[in-house]
């Protein structure tokens, strides 16, 4: 998979050089290219923003640098990229969308700053590419770079061979499958006793059926406490089927 990121803060994307994404790049599973938008400006000050038509707070990112950048980048690869535009007004970024994007060969991320990018850029590229305006959550950030880090990690970990244990994301929260739409339960490791706190006996019982049921019950309890909205989405018949399979 090829990932392009266009930003005025390329250094913000340094975390893509370490850990899971960094290792995937080193193994050649990911081709990540970070571009400085100012490379497509032509004035002395490398201007990327201007005042908003119609007035209002802040500044808006000018269309010209984005147009030159996206023209060059989208012409430079094979196949069709998905252009992912982080924005507070986007569709929610979900595990389902992460899985869809993980199935694509090329993603181009356009994290903006200020009040966002001149609308005509999304219109221009939406006519000939798959453009997705996406929000990572109901809170307001100062720009799109942090959302890109979130989305790239969520997508990269779903790529074959990137996560050490291929099974690791099978039981993710929000992933389709046995524990779909339930939050993960608690996890424990050595030592068996820590500051007088013991681990649950069932986890060292060696009884895999009991362990699986305990984990399922913990997931249900946690989901009911932290995300009752997810429980309401669950199909009770599917939960019963899972119960019987444990
Ligand atoms: N993904 C994601 C995000 C973002 C995000 C993503 C990308 C950019 C680019 C610029 N910003 C800053 C910003 C912040 C607020 C507003 C809305 N205006 C506020 C003043 C009155 C008018 C409307 C616009 C632009 C961004 C924020 N925030 N939260 C998420 N989940």
Structure description:
By secondary structure, the protein is of the alpha/beta class. Helices cover 34% and strands 17% of the residues. It contains eight helices and nine strands. The protein has helices spanning 19-26, 63-74, 95-102, 119-126, 145-156, 208-226, 228-233, 236-245, and strands spanning 2-7, 31-36, 49-50, 60-61, 82-92, 106-109, 130-135, 193-194, 197-198. The strands form three sheets. The chain has a five-stranded parallel beta sheet. A two-stranded antiparallel sheet has the order 3-4. Helix 2 packs parallel to helix 4 and helix 3 crosses helix 5 (145-156). The model has no long low-confidence stretch (mean pLDDT 94). Bound molecules: the ligand N#Cc1c(-c2ccc3ccn(Cc4ccc(CN5CCCCC5)cc4)c3c2)n[nH]c1N. Ligand JEK binds next to strand 5.
Write down the secondary-structure element order.
EHEEEHEHEHEHEEHHH
Say how many strands there are.
Answer: 9
Low-confidence stretches: none
CATH topology of the largest domain: Alpha/beta knot
Bound molecule kinds, no repeats: the ligand N#Cc1c(-c2ccc3ccn(Cc4ccc(CN5CCCCC5)cc4)c3c2)n[nH]c1N
The separation of the N and C termini measures: 37 Å
CATH class of the largest domain: Alpha Beta
Number of helices: 8
What percentage of amino acids are in beta strands?
Answer: 15-25%
Strands of the biggest beta sheet: in what spatial order? Answer: 2-1-6-5-7
Rough outline:
elongated
Mean pLDDT comes to: 94
The domain count comes to 2
Secondary structure: helix percent: 25-40%
| Largest sheet descriptor | 5 strands, parallel
Radius of gyration: 22 Å
CATH superfamily of the largest domain: SPOUT methyltransferase, trefoil knot domain
Given helix and strand content, the structural type is: alpha/beta
